[in-house]
Here is the input.
Amino acid sequence: MPASPCSDIGIRPYEPEDRATVRDVCFRTGLMGERVDWQWADAESFADIWVGWYTDNEPESAWVAVCEDRVVGYLVGCRDTRSGPHLPFVFLRSVVTRALPFRPGTAGFMWRAVADLARDRVVPEATPDLDRWPAHLHIDLLPEACGRGVGRVLMQTWLGVLRAAATPGVHLGTIAENTRAVAFFEAMGFRRLGTPLPVPGERSPTWGRLHAQTMVQDL
Ligand SMILES: CC(C)(COP(=O)(O)OP(=O)(O)OC[C@H]1O[C@@H](n2cnc3c(N)ncnc32)[C@H](O)[C@@H]1OP(=O)(O)O)[C@@H](O)C(=O)NCCC(=O)NCCS
Here is the structure.
Protein backbone atom coordinates (compact mmCIF):
# COMPACT_ATOMS: atom_id res chain seq x y z
CA MET A 1 0.00 0.00 0.00
CA PRO A 2 1.46 3.43 -0.90
CA ALA A 3 2.43 5.61 2.07
CA SER A 4 0.01 8.38 2.90
CA PRO A 5 1.29 11.86 2.16
CA CYS A 6 2.00 14.01 5.18
CA SER A 7 1.35 17.68 5.53
CA ASP A 8 4.49 18.48 7.46
CA ILE A 9 8.02 17.07 7.12
CA GLY A 10 10.75 18.13 9.52
CA ILE A 11 14.34 17.13 10.04
CA ARG A 12 16.22 16.13 13.19
CA PRO A 13 19.60 14.58 14.06
CA TYR A 14 19.92 10.84 13.45
CA GLU A 15 19.39 8.62 16.50
CA PRO A 16 20.49 4.98 16.87
CA GLU A 17 16.86 3.76 16.76
CA ASP A 18 16.61 5.21 13.21
CA ARG A 19 19.18 2.74 11.91
CA ALA A 20 16.75 0.16 10.50
CA THR A 21 14.50 2.72 8.81
CA VAL A 22 17.43 4.61 7.31
CA ARG A 23 18.65 1.31 5.84
CA ASP A 24 15.16 0.62 4.54
CA VAL A 25 14.88 4.06 2.91
CA CYS A 26 18.32 3.51 1.37
CA PHE A 27 17.17 0.28 -0.26
CA ARG A 28 13.77 1.63 -1.33
CA THR A 29 15.37 4.63 -3.07
CA GLY A 30 18.37 2.70 -4.37
CA LEU A 31 17.98 3.40 -8.08
CA MET A 32 17.80 7.19 -8.50
CA GLY A 33 14.96 7.37 -5.96
CA GLU A 34 13.17 4.25 -7.21
CA ARG A 35 13.30 0.61 -6.23
CA VAL A 36 16.50 -1.27 -7.00
CA ASP A 37 15.37 -4.74 -5.94
CA TRP A 38 14.78 -5.94 -9.52
CA GLN A 39 18.55 -5.79 -10.11
CA TRP A 40 19.96 -5.95 -6.54
CA ALA A 41 17.64 -7.90 -4.25
CA ASP A 42 19.82 -8.08 -1.13
CA ALA A 43 18.74 -5.20 1.13
CA GLU A 44 21.36 -6.01 3.77
CA SER A 45 24.40 -5.63 1.53
CA PHE A 46 22.92 -2.63 -0.29
CA ALA A 47 22.44 -0.72 2.98
CA ASP A 48 25.83 -1.88 4.29
CA ILE A 49 27.53 -0.43 1.23
CA TRP A 50 25.71 2.91 1.05
CA VAL A 51 24.80 3.89 4.63
CA GLY A 52 26.29 1.34 7.04
CA TRP A 53 29.60 3.08 7.63
CA TYR A 54 27.95 6.45 8.30
CA THR A 55 25.29 5.35 10.78
CA ASP A 56 27.77 3.17 12.62
CA ASN A 57 30.91 5.32 12.57
CA GLU A 58 29.88 8.97 12.22
CA PRO A 59 26.26 9.22 13.43
CA GLU A 60 26.77 12.85 14.45
CA SER A 61 26.98 13.68 10.72
CA ALA A 62 23.59 12.17 9.93
CA TRP A 63 20.10 13.66 9.90
CA VAL A 64 16.69 12.22 9.13
CA ALA A 65 13.58 13.72 7.58
CA VAL A 66 10.49 12.75 9.53
CA CYS A 67 6.81 12.79 8.71
CA GLU A 68 4.66 12.20 11.76
CA ASP A 69 7.53 10.28 13.44
CA ARG A 70 8.10 8.18 10.30
CA VAL A 71 11.56 8.45 8.73
CA VAL A 72 11.10 9.42 5.07
CA GLY A 73 14.65 10.39 4.19
CA TYR A 74 18.17 11.01 5.38
CA LEU A 75 21.46 12.72 4.77
CA VAL A 76 24.54 10.85 5.94
CA GLY A 77 27.91 12.53 5.78
CA CYS A 78 31.59 12.09 6.43
CA ARG A 79 33.63 15.13 7.46
CA ASP A 80 36.95 13.71 6.30
CA THR A 81 36.94 10.99 3.66
CA ARG A 82 40.66 10.36 4.29
CA SER A 83 39.71 8.70 7.58
CA GLY A 84 36.28 7.58 6.39
CA PRO A 85 34.85 4.69 4.38
CA HIS A 86 36.87 3.30 1.50
CA LEU A 87 34.10 2.33 -0.94
CA PRO A 88 36.01 -0.41 -2.80
CA PHE A 89 36.84 -2.05 0.53
CA VAL A 90 33.28 -1.69 1.85
CA PHE A 91 32.00 -3.14 -1.42
CA LEU A 92 34.44 -6.05 -1.44
CA ARG A 93 33.61 -6.87 2.18
CA SER A 94 29.95 -7.24 1.20
CA VAL A 95 30.88 -9.29 -1.86
CA VAL A 96 32.58 -11.77 0.46
CA THR A 97 30.37 -11.72 3.56
CA ARG A 98 27.11 -11.82 1.57
CA ALA A 99 28.47 -14.07 -1.20
CA LEU A 100 27.06 -11.63 -3.74
CA PRO A 101 28.32 -13.37 -6.91
CA PHE A 102 26.43 -16.50 -5.89
CA ARG A 103 23.37 -15.06 -4.17
CA PRO A 104 20.11 -15.09 -6.17
CA GLY A 105 19.16 -11.46 -6.69
CA THR A 106 22.73 -10.13 -6.86
CA ALA A 107 24.58 -12.73 -8.95
CA GLY A 108 23.28 -11.24 -12.21
CA PHE A 109 24.48 -7.77 -11.23
CA MET A 110 27.90 -9.01 -10.17
CA TRP A 111 28.63 -11.03 -13.31
CA ARG A 112 27.24 -8.24 -15.50
CA ALA A 113 29.65 -5.88 -13.71
CA VAL A 114 32.57 -8.18 -14.55
CA ALA A 115 31.49 -8.25 -18.21
CA ASP A 116 31.07 -4.44 -18.23
CA LEU A 117 34.53 -3.91 -16.74
CA ALA A 118 36.09 -6.19 -19.35
CA ARG A 119 34.28 -4.33 -22.12
CA ASP A 120 34.65 -0.74 -20.80
CA ARG A 121 38.25 -1.10 -19.58
CA VAL A 122 37.57 1.79 -17.20
CA VAL A 123 36.77 1.90 -13.49
CA PRO A 124 34.79 4.95 -12.32
CA GLU A 125 37.09 6.91 -10.01
CA ALA A 126 34.73 8.72 -7.69
CA THR A 127 37.29 10.19 -5.32
CA PRO A 128 38.51 13.71 -6.15
CA ASP A 129 41.33 15.67 -4.45
CA LEU A 130 40.58 14.97 -0.79
CA ASP A 131 42.73 17.84 0.51
CA ARG A 132 40.48 20.24 -1.37
CA TRP A 133 37.11 18.47 -0.94
CA PRO A 134 37.56 16.19 2.09
CA ALA A 135 33.91 15.84 3.14
CA HIS A 136 31.23 13.87 1.31
CA LEU A 137 27.60 12.82 1.73
CA HIS A 138 24.71 10.67 0.58
CA ILE A 139 21.13 11.94 0.53
CA ASP A 140 17.90 10.08 -0.26
CA LEU A 141 14.23 10.84 0.23
CA LEU A 142 11.23 8.58 -0.29
CA PRO A 143 9.10 9.69 -3.26
CA GLU A 144 6.43 11.29 -1.04
CA ALA A 145 9.07 13.55 0.54
CA CYS A 146 10.66 14.77 -2.71
CA GLY A 147 10.16 18.21 -4.19
CA ARG A 148 9.03 19.81 -0.94
CA GLY A 149 12.17 21.61 0.16
CA VAL A 150 13.33 18.85 2.52
CA GLY A 151 16.49 18.08 0.56
CA ARG A 152 17.43 21.74 0.70
CA VAL A 153 17.03 21.85 4.51
CA LEU A 154 19.08 18.67 4.96
CA MET A 155 21.82 19.94 2.65
CA GLN A 156 21.95 23.41 4.21
CA THR A 157 22.26 21.80 7.64
CA TRP A 158 25.20 19.66 6.50
CA LEU A 159 26.93 22.53 4.66
CA GLY A 160 26.48 24.71 7.76
CA VAL A 161 28.20 22.09 9.93
CA LEU A 162 31.08 21.83 7.47
CA ARG A 163 31.51 25.61 7.21
CA ALA A 164 31.49 25.93 11.01
CA ALA A 165 34.31 23.36 11.10
CA ALA A 166 36.24 25.32 8.42
CA THR A 167 36.11 22.34 6.04
CA PRO A 168 37.50 23.54 2.70
CA GLY A 169 35.18 21.57 0.45
CA VAL A 170 32.74 18.72 -0.03
CA HIS A 171 32.16 16.19 -2.80
CA LEU A 172 29.61 13.57 -3.74
CA GLY A 173 28.98 10.91 -6.32
CA THR A 174 25.76 10.68 -8.25
CA ILE A 175 24.42 9.19 -11.47
CA ALA A 176 24.64 11.56 -14.44
CA GLU A 177 21.29 10.24 -15.73
CA ASN A 178 19.65 11.23 -12.40
CA THR A 179 18.80 14.67 -13.76
CA ARG A 180 16.68 15.65 -10.76
CA ALA A 181 19.55 14.95 -8.36
CA VAL A 182 22.11 16.73 -10.55
CA ALA A 183 19.81 19.80 -10.78
CA PHE A 184 19.30 19.69 -7.01
CA PHE A 185 23.03 19.47 -6.28
CA GLU A 186 23.75 22.32 -8.70
CA ALA A 187 21.06 24.40 -7.00
CA MET A 188 22.84 23.64 -3.71
CA GLY A 189 26.15 25.00 -5.03
CA PHE A 190 27.87 21.87 -6.38
CA ARG A 191 29.49 21.66 -9.79
CA ARG A 192 30.32 18.67 -11.96
CA LEU A 193 33.91 17.46 -11.88
CA GLY A 194 35.27 15.32 -14.67
CA THR A 195 33.57 13.17 -17.27
CA PRO A 196 30.80 10.74 -16.31
CA LEU A 197 32.08 7.16 -16.48
CA PRO A 198 30.02 4.00 -16.98
CA VAL A 199 29.02 2.19 -13.79
CA PRO A 200 29.76 -1.52 -14.00
CA GLY A 201 26.71 -3.74 -13.58
CA GLU A 202 24.06 -1.12 -12.89
CA ARG A 203 21.24 -0.53 -15.38
CA SER A 204 18.42 1.99 -15.77
CA PRO A 205 14.78 0.81 -15.73
CA THR A 206 14.97 0.77 -19.55
CA TRP A 207 18.15 -1.33 -19.35
CA GLY A 208 20.45 1.53 -20.40
CA ARG A 209 23.94 2.06 -19.05
CA LEU A 210 24.33 4.53 -16.17
CA HIS A 211 27.28 6.84 -15.57
CA ALA A 212 28.94 8.01 -12.33
CA GLN A 213 29.27 11.77 -11.96
CA THR A 214 31.44 13.35 -9.27
CA MET A 215 30.35 16.77 -8.01
CA VAL A 216 32.23 19.19 -5.74
CA GLN A 217 31.71 22.39 -3.82
CA ASP A 218 34.25 24.74 -2.29
CA LEU A 219 33.12 26.02 1.10
C1 LIG B 1 17.56 14.66 -5.00
C2 LIG B 1 16.80 15.00 -3.72
C3 LIG B 1 17.68 14.76 -2.50
C4 LIG B 1 16.39 16.48 -3.77
O1 LIG B 1 15.67 16.78 -2.60
P1 LIG B 1 14.25 17.53 -2.73
O2 LIG B 1 13.70 17.70 -1.37
O3 LIG B 1 13.43 16.76 -3.70
O4 LIG B 1 14.65 18.94 -3.36
P2 LIG B 1 14.10 20.37 -2.89
O5 LIG B 1 12.60 20.34 -2.96
O6 LIG B 1 14.70 20.72 -1.59
O7 LIG B 1 14.66 21.30 -4.05
C5 LIG B 1 15.69 22.24 -3.84
C6 LIG B 1 16.10 22.80 -5.19
O8 LIG B 1 16.67 21.76 -5.99
C7 LIG B 1 16.27 21.95 -7.36
N1 LIG B 1 15.41 20.83 -7.76
C8 LIG B 1 14.80 19.95 -6.97
N2 LIG B 1 14.11 19.04 -7.70
C9 LIG B 1 14.28 19.40 -8.99
C10 LIG B 1 13.81 18.88 -10.23
N3 LIG B 1 13.02 17.79 -10.27
N4 LIG B 1 14.20 19.50 -11.35
C11 LIG B 1 14.99 20.59 -11.34
N5 LIG B 1 15.46 21.14 -10.19
C12 LIG B 1 15.11 20.55 -9.03
C13 LIG B 1 15.47 23.24 -7.41
O9 LIG B 1 16.36 24.31 -7.65
C14 LIG B 1 14.95 23.34 -5.99
O10 LIG B 1 14.69 24.66 -5.57
P3 LIG B 1 13.20 25.29 -5.83
O11 LIG B 1 12.23 24.35 -5.20
O12 LIG B 1 13.29 26.60 -5.12
O13 LIG B 1 13.04 25.40 -7.30
C15 LIG B 1 15.50 14.14 -3.62
O14 LIG B 1 14.63 14.47 -4.68
C16 LIG B 1 15.75 12.65 -3.61
O15 LIG B 1 16.10 12.10 -2.59
N6 LIG B 1 15.56 11.98 -4.76
C17 LIG B 1 15.59 10.54 -4.84
C18 LIG B 1 16.93 9.92 -4.42
C19 LIG B 1 18.10 10.55 -5.12
O16 LIG B 1 18.11 10.74 -6.32
N7 LIG B 1 19.13 10.83 -4.30
C20 LIG B 1 20.38 11.37 -4.77
C21 LIG B 1 21.29 10.25 -5.07
S1 LIG B 1 22.96 10.82 -5.42
